[in-house]
Amino acid sequence: MAGKARTKRCWLLKCEPEAYSIDDLARDGETSWEGVRNYQARNSMRDDMKVGDRVLFYASNADPSGVAGIAEISREAYPDPFAFEKGHEYFDPKSRREEPTWVSVDVRFIAKFPEIVPLDVLKVTPGLEAMGVIRKGNRLSVQPVTPEEYEVVRALGLPKGRAQKKA
Predict the structure, then answer these.
(1) Do residues 69 and 110 lie in contact, with contact meaning Cβ atoms separated by under 8 Å?
(2) What is the pTM of this model?
(3) Whether 67 contacts 122, CB under 8 Å
(4) For 147-156, what is each residue's pLDDT tens digit?
(5) Cα separations (Å) of 68 from 2, 38, 43, 56, 80?
(6) In 76-107, which positions are buried (b, 16+ CB within 10 angstroms) versus exposed (e)?
(7) Which of 62, 79, 94, 145 has the fewest CB atoms within 10 Å distance of its CB?
(8) What is the pLDDT of residues 51-63, one digit of tens each?
């Protein structure tokens, strides 16, 4: 008997545009999401992210900060290669390849919003009141979002014609 299909989850991934932007992801098509050095964020990546999960790509420390587009998880967790690279800013001498402390996932581009959906808009949009990114002090670079929150933000970011297509 076949197992029950897993419901896709949704995530918000933050990145500073100077480090990697939605335009970079659009150009590359796919990239590894490495360098996460927070245990809670790592646990989400390692234990919960699956291929096909939807992603809100959030530009942090931008002008304005906000959701710049959407992507999806294209490869599940694997050891973060930079954790083993001496001299790299993400090197971790305690991490072991057999049991890595830190992981990466791969992310595939889906769409860039014509304009960033700013944090100020997210804060006042009905249906997003409990969204992690709008809560003071929530600085995690990897955050779960509900499917409903994902849909609200997607609809805010995509023009009406494109928002109808399930991105």
Answers:
(1) yes
(2) 0.91
(3) yes
(4) 999 999 999 9
(5) 38, 23, 24, 8, 25
(6) bbebbebbbeeeeebebeebeeeebebbbbbb
(7) 94
(8) 999 999 999 999 9
